[in-house]
Structure formats: C-alpha cells, structure tokens
Amino acid sequence: MSAVHPATGARAGCGEIAAAVRAGAVTASAVVEAALARIAEAQPVLNAFTAVTAERARRQAAAIDRMVAAGGDPGPLAGVPFAVKNLFDVAGLATLAGSKIEADSPPAGADAPLVARLEAAGAVLVGALGMGEYAYDFTGRNAHYGPTRNPHDPARMTGGSSGGSGGAVAGGLVPLALGSDTNGSIRVPASLCGLFGLKPTFGRLTRRGSFPFVAALDHLGPLARSATDLALAYDAMQGPDAEDPHLAGRPPEPAAPLGDIAGLRIAVLDGHFVEFAGPDARAAVDAAAAALGAIRRVTLAEAGRARAAAYVITAAEGGALHLDRLRRRADDFDPETRDRLTAGALIPAAWVSAAQRFRGVFRRQVAEAMHDVDVLIAAATPCTAPAIDQQTMELAGAIVPVRANLGVLTQPISFIGLPVVAAPIARDGMPIAVQLIGRPWEEATVLRVAAALERMGVAAAPVAEGWRD
Amino acid sequence: MLPSSEPADQPPLARYGRAAAALLDLPIADARWPAVLDHLALAERLAAVVGQHPLTDADEPAPVFRP
Fold first, then answer.
1. What's the gap in Å between the CA of A94 and the closest CA on chain B?
2. Is there a smaller number of Cβ atoms within 10 Å at the N or the C end of chain B?
3. What value of ipTM does the predicted structure carry?
4. Do B49 and A308 touch (CB under 8 A)?
5. Residues of chain B contacting A, Cβ within 8 Å
6. Helix, strand, or coil (residue A387)
7. What is the pTM of this model?
C-alpha cells in the first residue's frame, strides 16, 4: 500500500476515494489524516471551518479500516471525508447556524439524519463549516466568526449562506460538503467557488436535525467537485423520515450511475434570467447551451414577481422564527442580519398570504412552460465573486446591493421547489456556474446533464490554488 | 392606538412599524429604526409587486404541511 496514494490527495473525488478504500488500496485513516492536514493548513486563510471533529473522524476511519480488513464493505462513500454547514446537528457540538446566540445552546444530542446517512454509507465527518448568520445571507460574511474566503482568491467572497461549504470543497480540503438552500444558498457559493451543487426538489430530503430558516422554502443538499459525487451523496441521503412533516413521501429514486442525455429537451431561460445576468453569466449560459444544443428559449414572465414573493415569505417567516431572540438578544445578532429579521417580524399577514398564494400560480405557469421541456438553463449568479466587503454592484443598468442581488437568479426557482444542479463552467479567471433546472422529482435528469457537460469539458470544478499565493 | 411618543405626522409605514413592534413586545432601539424601516419599505414594495397579480379565491397557498 502506497503512503501517498492519489486517494489521499486534494484532487480525489468521492468515487475515487471510496473505490480505493473498499479495494484496500488505501486506508480510510490515511485519507482522513490527509484531509485533516489540509484543513489545518488552509484554515488560517480560508476560515471555512468552525469546528474540526478530528478525534471522531479518526475513530470512524479506524472502524472502516477494520471492516475492510475483515472483508466487509463500508459502503459507497467508504472513507470519504465530508463536512457540514454548521446548521446541521452534530452530536456534541452546539448547532451554531452561524450565530453567536446559539453558541450558548447545549450541544446536539445526536447527528442530523443526513449526517448519519452519509456516515452509514461510509463517509467520515471531519467538521462543521462557517455560514452567514441564520442562513439569511448570500455573501459568506459573518460578523461573529469572520467571512469565509474564496479559495480561488481569498480577497473575494465565497457566496453564502453555505460559504464554508463552498470554500472547503473548492479548496480541496474535503471532496464533499452539505449546505442548505432557501433562496440560493447552495447554488450561489457553488457558482462563486466553482463547484457542483445540488438543490433537490422541495420535500425530497429530510431536514430534521437542521436549524430552520424558512419552513416554506428550506432545502438541504450537497456540494462536490463532480456531478457523480453529488449523485453518490444524494443517493445515500434519500429515504423516509416519519418525523419530518415536510417530506413528500417519495420513495428513494437513485440517480447514480448517471446515464447519457439522449432525447432530453433542453432550453434556455430568457427574460428575467438574461436581464439580471452580467457578461460572465451570459457567456456561461451560452457555453452550456451551445454544448447541449439548446437553441430554444423559454420565458417565465412572472419570475420577477416570484422573486418578490420569495423575499416577502423569507422575511416574514424568518422574522417570526427569530422573534423571541430579537426581543431578548438583539445586540447579539450580526448587524447585517438583525434589522432585516426585525423588519420581517413586522410584516402583515396579508402580504405573506398573497405571496404564498402566488406560489401556486407560478408553480402552474412553470409546469406549463416545462410541459415539453425537460431541463432549463440559467446562470446561477449574475456575476463572479465580488470582493469580500463589496456592498454594491452594477446590474441591469443600476447600482444594487450585492447581498440581496447575488440570489436574483436562484430565488424564483427555489420558490417553487424545482430540482437544480449548479454546474461550474470551465473558464479562465474566477468561476461562475449555470443552473440546470428540472421538473419536480427529476434530480437524476439534471445530474445527467451536469455530467454530460463535464464529459464535454464544458463544466469543471478543479481544486482552487489561488489561496496559496 | 399609537404609543404616545409617536408623532401623528409620521409616514404610515413608520407608524405601522412602531405600532406592530409595540404589539409584538419587540423593543427596537431608536438608532435601529431607520434601517428597520428601510427593510420594511422594501418588503412593502415587493409585496405590492406580488399584489399587482390578480388572485382568485381559488388560489390557495401552496401546500407544505402534510399530516
């Protein structure tokens, strides 16, 4: 057994690591030790982690190695180091959700089911990741723990709110991370950090054991450096959970192995999705569309209104959720979060009800638009990563706040819960991703399209090296 | 009834915001009110965008909770 097996390297993907560990070509312990060393090296620059569970990881890796030595099979993610946004419960850690306030909460008594399911498939948890406070964020900034930094250029933001998830995977610290996506919080950091990210259909994966933000819109999902790795993780996390009332009760529908895309009808979203896409974003969409032969254009005329409705629901539900904390500990919130949540708590019910009712209208309109289209393409962010402290940017001929507008292209889609893969387009300079949007419950389809773009060399998520400069 | 400290000539959104905060027993420091009202005004504008779309009585909220 080589001491420097490629599966211990930063570039190794989930499938490569698991194959090597299951075959006995490398130990899970060696893979995990290498990941822990990379985390220790990068943390002072990238600030991706808020906790490293080294001893737990070593115990889990040793157990996997014993199983392999005894002729057993640890599972499809054997020895794969992974980390989770710190809104997931991890036994023994306070579930911070990016906040100072939750640091005073007792440690979680058990792992979130998605963490447990990944470990049941052989993966090894190595830590918890930084995020924007209470997930109300598109930047990765955090007044309490400092910003997560983009591994391609640490002077730039990771995007958020799953900022540590983006930084940890893009920097090659781990090949897999979990995030959450209420309005774009997986897809935005996937785009700005150059990663593949999956926001499954609303109601697909259990949310139990995660700190909520907006019950009507919250999704959980993985970020990785290939579509196949997303599929491996996604498949391991599917399944029922009688204690999560938001689950739709779908039977597991495995996505792996990812087949070809013959016969798929793919179109490009225009209107809102072009108006609010900058030059880099439009070029990314053009590259994906050209590779996939997507010449048809589809307009979702109400996309802007959908975004407005998502904003109202988010502000109101988030404000209501945090009302008691706002009463008791307003000064302990991140200032960038506190006043938005406070305003949200004051929103009249009639505004929220109209937004929820419009959700059904928009869902029907998009279903009609996708009647004869399988996948829609749009940019994931309007631009590449802004500077960490950048407050405004030019978009559609206006100067607008960065924080709110990084999600202008993702919000209308999560509003109606469609499955989306963010796929990073191969290019020089800072990365940017496209959204591959499917019909409800067709995660496998959008993952197949992402894999096809990878095979064609149009999408790629190389390990970022810029942070070493 | 508005808190006695509130001038009646404040814009409706500010009067509403202060009354709602009082009803919710949500203390908000004076220095924070401009930012809170900016965010509430944005929500008002976006709610108006939503409100411009005609809804019928049959347009129910999207189902989320499944017993």
1. 26
2. C
3. 0.92
4. yes
5. 16-17, 20-21, 24-29, 32, 35-40, 42-44, 46-47, 49-53, 55, 59-62, 64-67
6. strand
7. 0.97
